[in-house]
Specification:
The structure holds two protein chains of two kinds.
Chain A: E1 9-21, E2 24-36, E3 41-45, H1 52-59, E4 67-72, E5 75-76, H2 82-91, E6 92-95, H3 109-119, H4 125-138, H5 155-167, E7 173-177, H6 185-202, E8 205-210, H7 213-219, E9 222-227, E10 230-236, H8 237-242, H9 247-255, H10 261-266, E11 307-308, E12 314-315
Parallel strand pairs in A: 3-8, 3-9, 6-7, 7-8
Antiparallel strand pairs in A: 1-2, 1-4, 4-5, 9-10, 10-12, 11-12
Helix pairs in contact in A: 3-4, 3-5, 5-6
Chain B: E1 4-17, E2 20-33, E3 37-41, H1 48-55, E4 64-73, E5 76-77, H2 83-89, E6 94-97, H3 111-122, H4 127-140, H5 146-149, H6 159-171, E7 177-181, H7 189-206, E8 209-214, H8 217-223, E9 226-231, E10 234-240, H9 241-246, H10 251-258, H11 299-303, E11 308-310, E12 316-318
Parallel strand pairs in B: 3-8, 3-9, 6-7, 7-8
Antiparallel strand pairs in B: 1-2, 1-4, 4-5, 9-10, 10-12, 11-12
Helix pairs in contact in B: 3-4, 3-6, 4-6, 6-7
Classes of the chains: A alpha/beta, B alpha/beta.
């Protein structure tokens, strides 16, 4: 589908390990590769500890990768000099999960939003003021909010402030790290619709990280499913939900309750036994082997590759990679 | 006819703060039958947690206070009990599962000690018998190697396992009513599915009544028999599972159902958000609390509070649209399929 286009962001064999003790390595990301194309929303889903947030943080240069490369517009971001790095951080912004913890309580909304503008020296004086007002109205707040402090706002409004801050320096690419998880259902829809409108009007590209598959399906064009630091399946979002191939994706989707009593009553659930194993010194081979009901001897020996099964539907599983 | 285990009448709970009186629960009435699951849904701050904490008299006082109303549980008037008498009810006849399994277990006590605590408090058993009973319950909640793991501390358990321990503590004395306050919110979906399944199995085995608080309508569709929808400290609609999902009358219920995306929908409908935010309960509006966010709001909605109206024997709604003189509104989700 996207074969002819050049990707905006190219992640190649990315690894991020953390040293957590003598001879103990936490493999948060263990060799993942994917491309994100201009103007699309790329969803990254998985359970806690699967490495999805770490991926977002490596892309925004909050973490240095252990190995692998990330190309943005053809340039490897791990090898930028200081000036190029500043230029890169201007193009790539992040919206954080917790709207209560990610806004400085001692700064006014105007100063929070304008922090990036000031660092990159984009606007001054009355232009700066005008830009702040413009951003506030873009996210559905108004001018009188500019001089207030974060504690005066509700969760949904705070997330709007976080979005305004991310938009302030006119980025091209935004990493949304669980932007709606901390919000109430009725407010989640407001924020998701806002993100979609902004994408359309500003031509943004999103990496949308979340654990809520129904919301990721709704907002994303393509979705990657992560498990224990690896991508197990990657497909266009409709295709993934219609035709999930990896046993983990199938179990994950069957675990999500659907708000419809009759559908719920007739559904068959695939129960996964046990918990996600620790990413500290994970097993050789396929990461999912310990909980997979189709496990074969080969799964314990070698990590399966992420192989295209046609139409951009990639899966990393020996059931398909004969 | 089903037997009522719990009956709550016109319950009002307020918190007295420096800023004034926060009316967290403003006159709710509902009942729970024996062996059934009642779900209470609503957004944060709608009073659902305060309501169930009041049932167990767990509201810190001061600043909280049960101002009015009655709670009749198994023939006992809960509000009139002394603290000592209440201690006999808590844990033995009513059990509670809290939201966050990470913080609601005591980190300095072993798992078995925490389960035995309730058993020894309420039953006349020796320490050894209580320990055996604790093992039996740990097996019931499907903790592998129960005997070995009983002497572990909470930090040695994963989130899902801790929630199983929480359930074990709650059901240790075979309670008639199990109150689960967002039991799966802090868990991953695959673990959530395990816990919901476990709660269903326990209910079947012990014929326990369950009050489940959640904001996840999917979980409700999976486990509940009846549903109360709460908004701004009031029950705005209550009915059977099918009535709430397929024949809802209150615009807030419509809003809740339309604002969540569904995994099983082939074509994506745009989400319909509910504009605005809930009212401030320091100074609640005198009319319908949802009027400010309701696109069907009429003049009367802001002036006068709507009465609870019955749509069927089991289905009640508090909305002016059900008044005979109200304009007819095309219900976006009404009358879908109902037998």
């Amino acid at each position: 589908m996207n074969s002819g286009k050049k990707p905006l962001l190219e992640v190649k064999n990315l690894k991020k390990y953390f040293n957590v003790g003598p001879r103990q390595t936490l493999k948060a990301i263990d060799d993942i590769s994917f491309n994100i194309y201009k103007g699309e929303t790329f969803g990254l889903v998985g359970e806690s500890g699967c490495g999805k947030s770490t991926t977002g943080r490596v892309i925004t240069k909050l973490y240095e990768p252990t190995a692998g490369s990330i190309y943005y517009d053809g340039k490897d971001i791990t090898e930028l000099d200081r000036k190029e790095a500043q230029n890169y951080t201007k193009k790539v912004q992040m919206i954080f999960q917790d709207p209560y913890a990610s806004l400085n309580p001692r700064m006014t909304v105007a100063d929070i939003i304008a922090e990036g503008i000031d660092i990159h020296k984009l606007y001054r004086g009355s232009d700066r003021q005008a830009r702040i007002y413009e951003l506030l109205s873009m996210v559905g707040l108004n001018e009188e909010h500019a001089n207030r402090f974060p504690h005066e706002f509700s969760g949904g409004q705070r997330q709007r402030i976080g979005i305004a801050r991310a938009l302030a320096i006119e980025p091209e690419f935004i990493v949304c790290d669980e932007p709606i998880s901390a919000l109430d259902v009725s407010i989640q829809a407001q924020v998701v619709n806002l993100l979609e409108e902004l994408q359309e009007s500003l031509g943004l590209t999103y990496l949308f990280i979340a654990h809520d598959l129904s919301m990721v399906k709704h907002i994303s064009d393509r979705v990657a499913v992560m498990y224990l630091g690896a991508i197990v399946e990657l497909a266009p979002s409709k295709e993934l939900y219609k035709n999930a191939l990896h046993p983990y994706t199938q179990a994950l989707m069957s675990a999500i309750p659907i708000p419809d009593p009759e559908v719920e009553a007739s559904r068959k659930r695939i129960f996964l036994s046990g918990d996600v194993p620790s990413p500290i010194n994970p097993p050789e081979g396929c990461k999912f082997q310990g909980r997979c009901q189709h496990v074969m001897p080969i799964c314990r020996e070698k990590t399966p590759e992420l192989v295209d099964q046609g139409d951009g539907h990639f899966v990393s599983c020996y059931l398909y990679n004969k | 006819m089903a037997e009522k285990l719990l009956e709550v009448n016109d319950l009002k709970v307020s918190f007295f703060t420096y800023a004034g009186e926060v009316q967290a629960v403003r006159g709710v009435s509902f009942h729970v039958n024996k062996g059934e699951t009642l779900a209470i849904v609503g957004e944060s701050g709608c009073g659902k947690s305060v309501t169930v904490h009041s049932l167990m008299r767990l509201i810190p006082s001061p600043p909280g206070k049960i101002k009015e109303g009655s709670i009749i549980f198994d023939g006992i008037d809960i509000i009139s009990l002394s603290e000592k008498q209440m201690n006999e009810v808590r844990g033995s006849k009513m059990g509670m599962i809290f939201q966050d399994p990470m913080t609601s277990l005591n980190p300095t006590m072993t798992i078995s000690q925490q389960i035995m605590e309730g058993i020894m408090r309420h039953k006349d058993v020796s320490k050894k018998e209580a320990f055996e009973e604790a093992i039996r319950i740990l097996e019931l909640v499907e903790i592998p190697n129960a005997r070995k793991r009983a002497n572990n501390y909470p930090h040695q358990f994963s989130g899902g396992m801790r929630q199983r321990v929480m359930i074990a503590i709650a059901i240790a004395c075979n309670p008639m009513l199990l109150i689960a306050d967002e039991p799966t919110t802090a868990l991953d979906v695959t673990i959530q599915a395990q816990i919901i399944d476990l709660m269903k199995a326990i209910q079947k085995k012990m014929n326990t009544s369950i009050i489940l608080i959640t904001h996840d309508l999917g979980v409700v569709a999976d486990i509940a028999d009846r549903v109360n929808v709460m908004y701004a400290g009031e029950i705005v609609e209550s009915g059977t599972l099918n009535e709430i999902f397929y024949d809802p009358y209150h615009p807030y219920t419509w809003g809740l159902l339309e604002s969540v995306p569904r995994l099983d929908m082939a074509e994506d409908k745009p989400l319909v958000p509910i504009p605005g935010t809930p009212p401030d309960l320091l100074d609640p509006p005198k009319g319908c609390p949802f009027a400010d966010r309701c696109k069907y709001a009429m003049v009367i909605c802001k002036e006068q509070h709507p009465e609870m109206t019955s749509c069927s024997k089991t289905h009640k709604v508090s909305c002016w649209l059900t008044h005979p003189d109200a304009p007819k509104v095309e219900r976006p989700l009404g009358g879908m399929k109902i037998e």
